[in-house]
Specification:
Chemotaxis Receptor Methyltransferase Cher, domain 1, Rossmann fold, alpha/beta, 2 domains, globular
């Protein structure tokens, strides 16, 4: 008879919660136990583990470093799509249209870029509306999705929100074995710097940015972790810079480093104080 893999017990799930938070800062609430089971079950079979307790012991052992990396990547992968929450991109277009044509290079950071749709959406806006040299950093804790994002290949149904003018300029339709897919044009792909980065770790050498997008990720952190990450990000935002979070997220009661311009769009509190806004 085939072995039936039972979901983790509540006590075992708590151990996984602590392990995931320790390494990623992400808090997996109790209702996510089914998600953990569905995403890790194949890894248990591949590792010949009979239970989630046995698998946990592997993950925390010296021999399980690679397996831990694989497990964390599976648990932290999130679905996304191009031009998600389009009001943010419209706001950014207006910002860029008002920028002077000279001055410092315009720098943007997609700090939780997942599989790259947000980063390439930002790149399309920058290429079309930024009149000065620009650069774009896209980072994520998950090395696998970063590797895929560099390829810039997406199923057509993931691209339905891309404006037609951007589709024509910056995207190529797949043919033959790639029919049903779209690929971001190389002249745009080459403008995005993708990197693996853990927001819980040291954020050295990044410099300062005009815009930071940190969307649809802080909902997975508790308030203490959110506050810690936001303090780090404030050190990498130019004095007049802008921070974008998801419309489902708020910094109210979490950080005093920022003030709200409108829901989900923030600036540094020091900038408001200096300009007496």
């Amino acid at each position: 008879m085939d072995h039936v893999l039972l979901p983790p017990s509540d006590q075992t799930f708590t151990r996984y919660q602590d392990l995931i938070k320790l390494h990623t800062g992400i808090y997996l609430p109790p209702h996510k136990k089914t998600l953990l089971h569905s995403r890790l079950s194949k890894r248990l079979f591949a590792s010949a583990m009979a239970s989630y307790d046995d698998y946990f012991e592997l993950l925390v052992s010296s021999a399980g470093k690679n397996e831990l990396k694989a497990a964390l990547e599976l648990v932290t992968t999130n679905e996304t799509y191009f031009f998600r929450e389009p009001a943010h991109f419209d706001f950014m277009k207006d910002l860029l249209d008002c920028q002077p044509r000279t001055g410092e290079r315009y720098r943007v950071w997609s700090a939780a870029s997942s599989s790259g749709e947000e980063a390439y959406s930002l790149a399309m806006v920058l290429q079309s509306h930024c009149s000065k040299p620009w650069e774009l950093l896209a980072s994520d804790i998950n090395q696998t999705v970063i590797t895929d994002a560099k390829k810039g290949i997406y199923l057509n149904q993931r691209t339905s929100m891309i404006p037609q003018e951007f589709l024509n300029k910056y995207c190529r339709k797949g043919v033959g074995e790639f029919e049903g897919y779209l690929r971001v044009a190389p002249e745009l792909r080459n403008r995005v710097q993708f990197d693996t980065l853990n927001l819980m770790g040291q954020l050295k050498g990044l410099g300062k940015f005009d815009i930071i997008f940190i969307r649809n990720v802080m909902i997975y952190f508790d308030d203490e972790t959110r506050g810690s990450i936001l303090r780090k990000l404030s050190k990498h935002l130019k004095p007049s810079g802008w921070l974008f979070v998801s419309h489902s997220e708020s910094l109210h009661g979490v950080s005093d480093d920022y003030y709200s311009i409108k829901p989900s769009i923030y600036r540094l509190a020091a900038y408001r104080d200096e300009h007496k806004i």
